[in-house]
Amino acid sequence: MKEIGQIIELEFLKTTPQGAYLITDEENEILLPHKYVPVDAEMGDKIEVFIYTDSEDRPIATTLTPKLFINQCAFLKAVDVTPIGAFFEWGVEKDLLVPFSEQFHKIEVGRTYLVYLYKDELSNRMVGSTKVEKFIKRNSISVVQGDEVNLLVYQETDLGFKVIVDNRNIGMLFRNEIFKPIRIGDNLKGFVQKIRPDNKLDITLNSVKLPSLEELANKIYEQLLKNKGKLEL
Q: Are residues 40 and 15 in the same domain?
């Protein structure tokens, strides 16, 4: 079902003791449990809901907002470890499973980890992974030098801090570009300073002002005057 993992607007179809059923564009019926149904809701009304799957892998709707969506990452708290993997609280009723095969290292209950959310096409389930970089590295570069971007700080290194850029790419915020305290988990605004051949990004917290065509033309003209009509390349 294409609606899984999305926030969409659906129409009330009918009510049952369990809740209200909503109808999708493909005429699939999805249950919105009774506790999430507005008291003044009527058949034909529309409501914005998030679609995920319940413990029996059936599509279900909620008015709760998750902490992340498909192809995004966020820091989540581990609430349980079972024989099939670790479970994380992510803002909706059913906890998010991170299977052992998708764990970068051993998960401990009560600790917070960076988790990437993806949809398993075979099972149609939403699954988490702490092997974040293997997913992020698949993405093409969608920014240019000077662009303002959203940053999620996720790892400290000798060079500075590694950041997730716009939930799509990996960037490095070097120590000489940092002029305020930064911690793992911080959400920041930054700017693309350089795009490297390996598709990694150098990031700065200061605006990158690129020279305009007029400024470049003036500099060339000044050099021509200075060098009597010659331009050194």
A: yes
pLDDT of res. 54: 84
Give pLDDT tens digits for 197-211: 888 899 999 876 655
**What is the domain-level CATH number for residue 200?**
2.40.50.140
Q: Does residue 52 sit in helix, strand or coil?
A: strand
Domain that holds residue 97: 72-134
- Strands ordered across the beta sheet of 125-129: 96-99, 85-89, 72-82, 112-120, 125-129
Q: What is the DSSP letter of 209?
A: -
Count up the domains in the chain and report the number: 3
pTM for the whole structure: 0.81
Q: Determine, yes or no, domain membership for 159.
A: yes
Between the alpha carbon of residue 79 and those of residues 72, 76, 82, 111, 147, the distances in Å are 20, 9, 10, 8, 37
The CA distance from 148 to 98, in Å, is 32
Indicate if 191 and 165 belong to the same structural domain.
Answer: yes
Say if 141 falls within a structural domain: no
Indicate whether 172 pLDDT > 60: yes
Contact 135, 116 (CB under 8 A): yes
How large is the average pLDDT for residues 58-78?
A: 94
Q: What is the pLDDT of residues 178-199, one digit of tens each?
A: 888 999 999 999 999 999 988 8
Tokens standing for residue 196 = 């490297």
Locate tokens 């009560």: which residue?
110
